[in-house]
Amino acid sequence: MVVVVIDRIEDWDVMSSLANLFRAPNSIFLVVAPPQVQARWQTRRQAGHEDLPPFLDIYLTCLWDELPQLLERHIDLPAASPEALALFPKLTRYLTLMSTGIPSRCVELMEQRVEMGGDGEAMLKFDDKAVATIEFYSALHELLHLNEDEMLGSPLGAMAAADQDRCRRFVLTVARDIVARGSVPSQSPMSALGKIASGIRPRDHEAIVNRLLLVLLEAGLFVPSGKMLILSPQARQEVAKGREVLGTGIVPRFAEDPVIESASELNRTMMASAPAPPALHRQPIGPSPPRRCRRPMQP
């Protein structure tokens, strides 16, 4: 038996042209495809076309709840100071918001804060300004999480897994975008959103954005100013710190971000194609055999 893994097929015509390959005897094919390919396949099947052999369709969800465990693979918590341990839950919420739930981006953001000690030990370190930034966005994420059902207009748990991911990523991305901009039109907020938020918008997205803005207003993060909603003075100070900590803009900019069709598409791609994290050891790097290593975290 041969198992063949095809990382990603983005075009239905390419997928259908491989139909004979998929029928090879004594073979199993695992194919990663975006939702638009799946939708085209299902539409043609319902119309009576048998373009492909039978496939077991599996939806890969975003790893929201598993993020702390994923981070623990990269951070040596037992070696962390009490202050660093207290920061870890906030760091988890901060990374969830900034990466919008994409695990490989969490690792990428952490790698920006790695420093090598004199003894060859890799440390994940944050200065006071970075800690303040983490705490601000952690509080923002917690606010969004507590008001999730209210913003979505229905309990998240009642939705299908794909809809949960789409809605969660949409809310996080919109919140991240409007905080980055510092202002948003109060009458047509969707016009100020970036292409990712526009690409993953769920049903009733306009009502969701309006409820999100109401939550941010009630929390004092935004205030009315004419026809605009702008960051409050206190929030503006915290965002200014974030610009210095994160570098270009208030959040990391990823020029390769595609307009995606669902919450899982980017997750599927990143989880399948992300390289393994570098092996950074607590001890000086030497000829020891490769192993899964973690970094101490220090504020």
User: What is the overall pLDDT average?
Assistant: 75
Characterize the largest beta sheet: strand count, sense, and whether it forms a barrel.
3 strands, mixed
Structural class: mainly alpha
Number of helices: 13
The share of residues in helices is 40-55%
Strands ordered across the widest β-sheet: 3-4-8
Calculate the terminal CA-CA distance, rounded to whole Å. 51 Å
Over the alpha carbons, how many angstroms does the gyration radius reach? 22 Å
What can you see in these coordinates?
With 299 residues, the protein is mainly alpha-helical. The chain has two domains: 2-46, no CATH class; 67-273, no CATH class. The protein contains 13 helices and eight strands. The strands form three sheets. It has a three-stranded mixed sheet. A hairpin with a 5-residue loop joins strand 3 (114-116) and strand 4 (122-125). The protein is flat, with a radius of gyration of 22 Å.
In short:
This protein is mostly helical.
Features:
single chain, disordered C terminus, 48% helix, 299 residues, three-stranded antiparallel sheet, mainly alpha
